[in-house]
Amino acid sequence: MNMLICLLLVLALAALGEGRTFVFENQRGETIWVGALGNAGVAPPNGGGWEMAAGSSLTLELDDAWAGRFWGRTGCSFDASGSGTCQTGDCGGVLQCNGAGGVPPVTLAEVTLGGYGGNDYYDISLVDGFNIPVTMTPTDVSGGGDHYSCNPATCPANVNAQCPAELQQVVNGAVVACKSACLAFNTDQYCCRGAYGTPDTCQSTTWPTNYPAFFKGLCPDAYSYAYDDVASTFTCSNTGYRITFS
Q1: Looking at residues 175-189, what average pLDDT do you find?
Q2: Distance from CA of residue 192 to its chain's centroid?
Q3: What are the CA-CA distances from residue 164 to residues 4, 17, 133, 168, 219 (Å)?
Q4: Of 16, 46, 54, 146, which sees the most CB atoms within 10 A?
């Protein structure tokens, strides 16, 4: 093996270990506070939370094997020490969530980098309900013939504006989020637990009200309930991602 080939291999291996670039964009026209939570044993980036003014962006480098979730918090107020509250997505009354998840209902952008077969798996989840529109887009590759391969995973609709009254989370007379059926009613069937804890026994078409169909109708690419995998999971590899809150 000549020296040039050896050098190319070294550079390629080095590139594989450089991690992934994640760009966060706030296109909402108002300040949001991003929350971040790593999966078990995985540290959250940037302390697990940060403020983003309207129109701003932030770039982070994540490890090639990072896995976790991001969400946007709204209606927050924090003091100089980082203590405070948020109307949606609150994570224990602190700016930097540092291992705490967001209180539902909240729209989640979920990702597992370098998972099975070396692929990334990513999705937008409304399983815990919805608070603001979110899109997750691969930045270094473009989608192919398969809709779920390297294309944007997105929930662009203002779900709050059409949320059924029984699912609405209201603050000061305004609908700030839309609850999942599980969160609103807490039954085994709506939560896919107990006797309904498998894909065969928990099918939203058999529920008293098919609430996932409401969410799916507005955001076809997003998870609408626990067993909505086939029409919600996207895959890609060797790419960074842009997460846009709108």
Answers
A1: 98
A2: 20
A3: 64, 47, 17, 6, 15
A4: 46
